Amino acid sequence: MESSQDAILAKTLDGHITYWNTAAQRMYGYSAGEVMGRHIALLAPSDHREEIAVLLARLRRGEKVEHFETLRVTRDGALLDVDVTMWPRRAPDGTVIGACAIVRDIGDRKRAEAELTALYEQQRHVALTLQRSLMGTPPAVPGLVTASRYRPATQGAGVGGDWFDLIPLGAGRVGVLIGDVMGRGLEAAAVMGQLRSAAHALAKTGMQPRRLMQALDACVADLDVPDQLVTCCYLVVAADEAEVTLCSAGHLPVLVAAPGDEVRPLPAPVNAPLGVGDVLYEQSSAAVPPGATLVLYTDGLIESPGCDIEDSLAALAAACGALATAEPPGLDAMADRILSALRPDADGHDDDVTLLLAQRPAAPLASVTTTLSTRPGSVPEGRAFLSTALAAWDCQAKADDARLLVSELLANAVQHAQGPVTLHLCRTAAELTVEVGDGSPHLPEPRRAGEDEESGRGLNLVRVLADSWGVRPTDEERRSGSRCGCERRPGCHRVVTVAPGAVVVARGQRSQGLRLTKGRLAHTSRVPRWHRRLPPRGR
Q1: Which residue, 103, 78, 71, 101, is CA-closest to 5?
Q2: Could you give the percent of the chain with pLDDT greater than 70?
């Protein structure tokens, strides 16, 4: 025992030292003569003295204590990380008469563990910062109340492939997107970042949900990541439409929670996840009442080992139903309560968790629609229809600008598009939305007119008067729409005008300069949609 590299000592059952080898002298700094007969508590820091009594009691009961890691103190007051193994000494008749202990200095190991822990936390922080950067921060969308929660995994690097996004589409429409890249780590986060950017750009073109999924499926294939699968769901929500259009690529069902109604899943065709290849994605439209809350989430919220997913979905529906009362809490409070109900242990989940709540906007106060032909007389008919509606809704302040833009855009539709042309107006408490649709497969695009040309200036006029504009295709027709504020306060009215395939949007406060978004959209469907923001004039 004297040649052992580990400290070995013996003691009586009341804790007095009876043996002390050379290694113990090197470790603690006390010679054998200095410690013989003294109590073992001499070697324990003041805040560890109570554990000495506990260990002695276990030894008296005949227990063996193995690899007990604790702190001990040397002669000069330095603290040591040690691993202690103790066992009782017995008399020939089996009676416990004392105890022996082997003590190993594990300071080097503890320091290495601390360094590894610090390195792990640093890498985890870098990974989570990268993921949050790739996820981005969805913008606040006027008219759409939302709340979101994201919890990284508490095991491993904490990085996953969850993401969500809110994409303003113009003319009162908002794209709501959520997805989950299967797998974990930086590779999943990198794939997520690429798909989120691609999905956002594609959605801004006004692409229909099924076409967006088709394009994202091709993006996943182009990433050349073996066996990469992604679940995704994309919805288009509009204040002036009673239905929500959605396409789901293998994602968990969206829930609808409306006050006074049972929580239900939003009906959607069953489509394969992105990355399977050669899949024809389908979309559907489902009625969602104004004020209802759409609940979108990833599998980290409901999946856990040993728990059936159907039971977890039922628990989520029950949690949403308990909150969808006549006077529901705010969406932020609702999101927190759902997380507490489904994931009460914030530090005990091995997958990242994403929850997104979106409340469908209130229905417009009024709406009217008319159908026009592609003959020259349709232009004054459209102007008259707009004037009548503006007069009835007391939105006359910018009627001249509105008529001018409608004239230019309807003239463009009559001359270049295919009929019939639809003109749709709807009004909320603060905005007027005007939409024009036609059946032309071509996108209206401004061009620079020559000095001697008689045409080519109409859309440039719209471009000058508008704050921003773009194209949104649909499957049925080429439609255009616009928004304007219609509060009954002098100088605060906003007028919006529409043209074939164009949406003019104006709202809120006076714009400071012009913002122009140009770009020809991909011919992914027959119907382009333009949206423009019209700045107030003459204030």
Answers
A1: 103
A2: 79
